[in-house]
Each structure stands twice: as structure tokens, then as C-alpha cells.
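A favour between colleagues. Tell me how you read the following sequence-structure pair.

===
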Amino acid sequence: MGSGTYCVSDFPQDLTINWKHTGGGTTFYDCGASTNQVYVTWTNTLNAIHTLLDVGCRGAKGVTGTVGINDDQVLNGVWGRIQAKSNRRASDYVLLTYYGFYDVNSNGVWDAGTDINRNDPSLCTVTAASELIRTGNGQCHSWADFIHQVLRGQGLEAINGNNNRAVAAEIKVGIAFGVKNWATSRMSPRNIISFDAGVDGSSAVTPNPANNEAADAPGVAGQGNSPNPPSEFGNHWIDKLNGKYYDPSYGIGPFTDLKAYEDAAFSGSIETGGSGYRLKDLPANDGDPSNHADEINNYTETSF
């Protein structure tokens, strides 16, 4: 592994080792060769497993500079890999998804009738990076942990001196937030007529233009290019890295303002109303990142 103050991250390289032995004497005899995969990391890796090294080194390929000063360049490279939403388990190339599907034909997209649907929350239960890698499909906390562990694989528990943090988002008022996208008609708040457009959006319901209605629509893709993750949650996990906010589950960010993050991620808040549920528009942005009154969630930073 690379270490020091001037380092380069690179793709894995195959290193061939020619072995010799003496048999207890003084003459060396050939006893074969082995080929081993070697990764060059930013600094001394912190207990990373194969997939974490693979994602980090592929993302940060070619980064040079000084540890503690140019760590953000490693973060940028890793984040590019996360934004691509096509990371795979290193050992067998299984696609890693967020409320996604098992990619039977390994083409990186959902194929109805071929792939195995694991979009249902009851089928997506893991919350740690190690379990995400083992099962191939994880919740938001597993993806927040995943990017942190990828960075740890590069020796980074902090970026340019700023500690990596997990950030819990929890709805303030109402029961949940509506994750993009939703189809809507007329004015807020709108009666929700469908929470589920199907894993690929093929079961979408169209709101009546004469009524105040909302329905789940094909969404912002999750990790693994999962085409329509669940439409609403009461809580969520993101990351704060080098002072900015990242949502690795959907590959959106970075943001310096949590309100800007909400505007990019959510369609509104969900509350009870009448005999059902209603989708209420997000508050207007007041332009002041220090004022959190225009946010629908409370945010709590924690250590990993």
C-alpha cells in the first residue's frame, strides 16, 4: 500500500511473484510463481476489504498531492464512482443496489421478467457497509457507511482535517417526506392516491387534473440504478464530508445548505388528512443556510 506525504491512488495491478526456496541448503530452487492483485492507496489503509479498496482506487485513480491537504481530491474521485451508481462487489461483480434488484444478466439496469425485485423494504434490511457488500442490497445507512468505509480504505477518516460524519434526517412535522419524483395536480396539500408506481414505474397512477392529487411517479434512481426506490420515509441517512452534505443512496450532492439538499431530494412532506394522507409542498427557500425553519427535517450529526 502507498503511504507518505506524496501519494498516488491507482487501479489494481497484477503483481507476479517468482518464488524460490533453498530446501535448507544454500542453493535456491525455483518453486513456481503466483499472481497477486495490488492496490496503491492514498495513505495507509484502515482495515478495508476487497470491494472497498476496489471502489476507492478506481475512483481516485491518478490523484496526487499531500495527505491532509489534498484529501478532497480523493473524495471527489470516490464521489464520482458513487454518482455513477454502478459499483459492484469485487469478488464476483454483483451489482450493489439501494432498494434495488438482483441483476441476473449483469447489464446494470432493471429488466422486468428477468431480474429479481428487491425494492420492497422487507427485502432490504441491512444497515452496514459490510452487510451491503455481502447481500448486494442495502438501506440508506449502509450506503452512508459505504462511502465512509471506502474513504477509510484510502486511509481517510477525515478529509483535510474534517472528520467524516453520518447525518440522520428525521421528519419534523407529519409522518414522512416524499422522495422524488411525485406526479401532482392543482394545489398543495394534495390527496395521495398512490404510494407505489412499481419498481420500474410501470404502475404509475395519473392524478386527476381537476383535483388536488399526488401519486408516486418513476423516481430518482438509487444505487445500482434502482429505477424507483420507495416513495416515502420518515428518516434517512446522509454524510457530511469535508464540511459538505452528500446523499450516497441517490448519488446527489454535495450541498453546503441542507435546504438546497431537500429541494433536490424531496417533493414535499406527508401528513394525515381526511381519511388518508396528503402531500404538502416544501417551504420556500429563505436563502439563509443558517436558518433551518425552511427545512422539513431535523438533522443530527454523529460519528461513524
